[in-house]
């Protein structure tokens, strides 16, 4: 039997005990780390708000004893996406695939969104498909500090979308800490996405840095519309990756629990696997 233990995320070291005992693999189930606990322990809160199905029941894949299924509270911005998130935690779905589906649950046609790290352009293209409507009102602002990345993004868009959709995209050779400078005054943004690290297949020395990532997160926070999302994929397998993650966690720890709901997901048995972070601004 493959019964997977469930434990709370890294933000509460004191309660990082398996909630369902022993097994062959570990994974972290996501949990809103800044949720108000109303005086109860995180464990009490978890028990009240996250229902668990015994590990030996039929799983969401239809197989028995595969993994533990859970459901988030109905008012969670991730409600309904639990199976997808568990698949990520189990290493069955890629970080980008999961983030795109989470973005889809937030982004509406006609929205303004920002790709803070264009890279090869896959995220920019996914965002464009989400915002583009028939009246061509949506906007995607893409930033990267690397010309090679912006060229790759342009080429991908060139071969993937028509001229009217392309009009909705504006690319900038600029650090994401200055993303507000490229927006028209008083623009509200529904999504800012960071896919940190270096350009895959490119120059590995050009890499996101804690200091500018932090500045960019502050700016993203200030332009975010209620109901919007800051989405971050963090890679810790390169030098500076852990430091960047720590900086991001510090930033999150200062967000108001009245205004933000934050989640962090990781496949724990693969310590270098990407970490997914979603920061939802409450309506
Ligand atoms: C992992 S890649 C992004 C992948 C991309 N989103 C995609 O879909 O292919 C990270 C990118 O961040 C860029 N980058 C590094 N520092 C940056 C900064 N300060 N501002 C904006 N982009 C930056 C790198 O040049 C690199 O292209």
From TrEMBL:
Signal peptide region: none
Molecular-function GO term, any one: mRNA binding
Name under which the protein is recorded: Methyltransferase domain-containing protein
UniProt source species: Prunus persica
